[in-house]
């Protein structure tokens, strides 16, 4: 009985991890992000008094998953991009990054 339960638990964990991995790999964006949008996000964050997350060791790039300690915000309502509800943003070390709302994976950065 213990062997069967162990096998079921092991299989369940394996299948769950495969599902998470495939969800992360399928995150893509067809939105073209402009320099002006990066500036608008930075300016908006300043007016809202949002604080940049500071960690000199963190250099987020496309594909990087933001840890839960990093605060993400919805895009400003003035930002006109297709499927805006799919994205959040954050400011990390003074630079805006766009993230997938469900996976927290970075899909665009401005340096």
What are the salient characteristics of this protein?
4 strands; 33% helix; Nuclear Transport Factor 2, Chain: A; 111 residues; 4-stranded antiparallel beta sheet; alpha+beta; globular
What does this structure look like?
This protein has 111 residues and is α+β, with helices and mostly antiparallel strands. The chain has a single domain, classed as Roll (Nuclear Transport Factor 2, Chain: A), CATH 3.10.450. The protein has helices spanning 2-25, 35-47; strands at residues 73-74, 87-92, 95-100, 106-109. Strands 1-2-3-4 form a four-stranded antiparallel sheet, covered by helices on one side. The longest helix is centred in the N-terminal third of the chain and has 24 residues, at 2-25.
How are the SSEs placed, and which strands pair?
Layout: H1 2-25, H2 35-47, E1 73-74, E2 87-92, E3 95-100, E4 106-109
Antiparallel strand pairs: 1-2, 2-3, 3-4
General form: globular
- The CATH topology corresponds to Nuclear Transport Factor 2, Chain: A
The tally of helices reads 2
Largest sheet: 4 strands, antiparallel
Structural class determined from secondary elements = alpha+beta
Q: How many domains would you count in the coordinates? A: 1
The number of distinct β-strands equals 4
The CATH class, by name, is Alpha Beta
Low-pLDDT runs: 13-27
In short:
33% of the residues lie in helices and 16% in strands.
């Amino acid at each position: 009985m213990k062997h069967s339960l162990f096998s079921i638990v092991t299989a369940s964990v394996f299948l769950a991890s495969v599902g998470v991995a495939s969800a992360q790999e399928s995150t893509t964006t067809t939105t073209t992000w402009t320099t002006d949008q990066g500036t608008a996000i930075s300016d908006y964050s300043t007016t809202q008094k949002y604080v940049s997350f500071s960690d000199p060791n963190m250099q987020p790039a496309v594909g990087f998953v933001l840890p839960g300690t990093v605060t993400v915000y919805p895009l400003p309502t003035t930002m006109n991009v297709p499927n805006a509800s799919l994205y959040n943003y954050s400011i990390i070390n003074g630079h805006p990054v766009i993230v997938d709302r469900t996976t927290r994976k970075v899909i665009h950065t401005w340096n």
